[in-house]
Design a protein that fits this description.
Layout: H1 6-17, H2 22-34, H3 38-50, H4 57-80
Helix pairs in contact: 1-2, 2-3, 3-4
Length: 82
């Protein structure tokens, strides 16, 4: 198994250290995009968006569906990727 890049390790640690703060997760999503993982970046951004209350129930439903689709398609890769 390939070790995770140090940048990714640091970004994940920042996300864990500040779970209520969107900024570390959005920085992580940008890094994922820049490093060839656009689906994983999309997944993170969806999680950020659905964590905020909104009256747009239909949008949240669509986002949660997309989140589930992405997870179903990539979960084993994302869990065992590093």
């Amino acid at each position: 198994m390939t070790p995770a890049p140090p940048e990714l390790v640091a970004l994940l640690a920042a996300c864990r250290a500040r779970p209520g703060d969107d900024l570390p997760r959005l920085v992580l999503a940008d890094w994922l995009d820049e490093n060839g993982q656009p689906e994983r970046a999309e997944f993170v951004r969806i999680q950020v968006e659905v964590s905020h209350p909104t009256a747009d129930v239909e949008r949240i439903r669509r986002l949660k569906k997309r989140e589930a689709d992405l997870l179903g398609e990539h979960e084993s890769e994302w869990v065992s990727g590093y």
